[in-house]
Specification:
The protein has 268 residues and is α/β, with parallel strands linked by helices. It has twelve helices and eight strands.
């Protein structure tokens, strides 16, 4: 089995790192290309994979081809590679908002897997949601599942629209959480905590809370209520969040992300 990566950015590196560290495939079975030669040189030196200078060459003799570019660059890539894929090859897309039917038209190809991972893939903690066309080779499907397992958790869905929804929640989600963490750190500094201490307290608190949620059989609501004593400090803070529509703001934000993803898909 040979695989190629068109685009060698952070997510491509996370996938390549997972593949090589888990011995899913040997480095010699992995090819990469990118508009920026520095990225392919880096990949070659760090992971000992094969680097190419153009996309036509990198897809030759590859069984699975990952497309890891920016969504706005997909039409340019289509102009270069339309009708170039063989029937026994599978295209794997990680592009947000780009639907399978769009990819099929752009490349005149039907064996397609669509994946929406997230950035914790960089530390093997990704949440990946994926699906595939009925024409996709079963061996390639099995290989992709192994690759996704090497970077974290994966969830297969039959309905592609669930990927667009998951994009708004789990793919974009780390940014929401990081913004919340930024705000907590600033709030700690605002009441007098030293910056480093505020950061350490916040990050350790987040880590511990997530682990508690993972190991507990209680719902997030019950866990929240367990922390909240009537008339106490936690209740005072939660009243401010509730008064300012914290929940509604989160719901509105996720909806905006979902709608934007659909817009991006329609524009292609």
């Amino acid at each position: 089995m040979k695989i190629s990566f068109i685009g060698s950015g952070k997510m491509a590196e996370a996938l390549i790192s997972g593949i090589t560290e888990s011995n899913t495939l040997s480095p010699n079975s992995i090819n990469c290309t990118d508009k920026d030669d520095k990225k392919t040189i880096y990949m070659n030196e760090k992971y000992n994979i094969n680097k190419f200078t153009n996309n036509l060459d990198v897809i030759q003799n590859a069984d699975i081809i990952f497309i890891c570019i920016k969504p706005q660059d997909i039409k340019t890539l289509s102009n270069e590679l339309k009708n170039q894929f063989k029937n026994n090859q599978t295209i794997v897309s990680i592009l947000a908002g780009t639907q399978i039917q769009t990819l099929s038209k752009l490349f005149n190809h039907n064996s397609i897997i669509r994946i929406m991972p997230n950035t914790p893939a960089q530390i093997k903690k990704s949440v990946s949601v994926w699906t595939h066309t009925k024409e996709t080779d079963s061996t390639h499907i099995k290989q992709i599942k192994s690759i996704l397992a090497s970077i974290g958790s994966d969830f297969y869905v039959e309905k592609e629209e669930l990927i667009d929804m998951a994009t708004a929640l789990s793919a974009s989600g780390p940014a929401y959480l990081f913004l919340f963490i930024e705000s907590l750190i600033e709030a700690g500094k605002n009441i007098g905590l030293p910056g480093n201490l505020s950061k350490d307290l916040t990050t350790k608190m987040i880590d511990g809370s997530i682990n508690l949620l993972s190991f507990s059989e209680e719902t997030p609501r019950i866990l929240r209520e367990n922390v909240t004593s009537p008339g106490g400090t936690t209740e005072a803070a939660l009243k401010v969040l509730i008064k300012n529509n914290f929940n509604k703001i989160i719901i509105k934000a996720i909806k905006a992300a979902h709608e934007r993803g659909l817009e991006l898909g329609e524009s292609q």
